[in-house]
Amino acid sequence: MSAGAIEASRRLRIAEIFGPTIQGEGALIGEPTVFVRAGGCDYRCVWCDSLHAVESAYRESWVPMETAEVWGEVERLSGSVPLTVSLSGGNPAIQNFGPLIAMGKAKGYRFACETQGSIAQGWFAALDLLVLSPKPPSSGERVDWEGFDACLAAAKDARAVLKIVVFDDTDYAWAQGVAARYPDLTLYLQPGNAQVDPDVAVDLQALSDRLLWLVEKVTQDRWFRPRVLPQLHVFLWGNKRGV
Amino acid sequence: MSAGAIEASRRLRIAEIFGPTIQGEGALIGEPTVFVRAGGCDYRCVWCDSLHAVESAYRESWVPMETAEVWGEVERLSGSVPLTVSLSGGNPAIQNFGPLIAMGKAKGYRFACETQGSIAQGWFAALDLLVLSPKPPSSGERVDWEGFDACLAAAKDARAVLKIVVFDDTDYAWAQGVAARYPDLTLYLQPGNAQVDPDVAVDLQALSDRLLWLVEKVTQDRWFRPRVLPQLHVFLWGNKRGV
User: How far, CA to CA in Å, does A225 sit from each of A185, A189, A228, B28, B83?
Assistant: First the structure.
């Protein structure tokens, strides 16, 4: 490997860094957070709401940054006041966020990471929270459960939770199966968001209706394990980026 | 005390029992829950959203029920499948829910209770979660901090959290003071809901705007401790009762 390649490998491809805002979904809903959105993904979900961090066509906009630069931006945005940093994407697990986590934890920051669970990384164990979000059938992707189990194993003592997006009855039945496979993980269900165009105003009533649909599914089935939560950020900001 | 008085004291005054639905706010947001709403309150917050469980004018509608009857209704609603039972009100702490909690825990149910923290009860220690919601200045009430500390002490090993409703800048500054007083408690902030008429449709955009206001307050102040959450049930059902 050439010196140039080694140097490049220390860089992170970052689609955006933004906040502080609140975490809009899942286990940390409502938690003040700075988001570090990694560029690049090994999946291509048909309903992806973050294509600007996934599609290679956007690759030019993924700024290669040194870990120290990324950290500097997190500190600037948070005014050096410790808070939760969420590593999202794309799939952040295709890159090495270990050094960033070490840098931030030394200053009292906490780290969460959300990934589909396709690629395991040693640095998962350094997280405060690993959100594993296996993609349901409606995504068009297929979960590799061996890879998923490797992610869980890599988390070691880090808290891991399951978050599943549900678009339809097929996804819902699939979520029940996944839940049964992992009886010890806290489970979050989230209605799918089919309105992902940042330039189209979000229909709040439609958002409310989709959440209601999912609440009625679990309560009618007396499936009391999952916590059912919306995407608050869509409620607040529609599909605008950087909030 | 006459035999009749003793018998009466074993009864609970219940405004409503409903669910399963999801918990709409605070630490258990999204959690499938059956609500047992106690009738009667030692406070009268000017913006109370549950007057039907507070005002003496509604007293006739608070059904005196034996603990076993209350428990029977929880089991019926949940199909005997264990879930979280939330004791709310009114102020549930003016009554004795200890026997109900014991009955439910024996069957694997979990119990949360939300109270303003004015009256301590030994049964707080048997809860899975005690939500202490001290009322801010806009309520027109004044917190007795000795009573509040007695509630915290009564919780013993039960998890206790703080939830504060914020209507305006005065409430917000007050919440910061309360937070400083209890540095070890997880803190939830919730924008106040001024639209409490069950017969008037809720303005979803106004709900979104009030949450946004509070999110912007904490992020601009770099106050990263509180989790900021809406009342999801208002988003879903407006101010309709029994959901």
Answer: 10, 10, 9, 12, 8
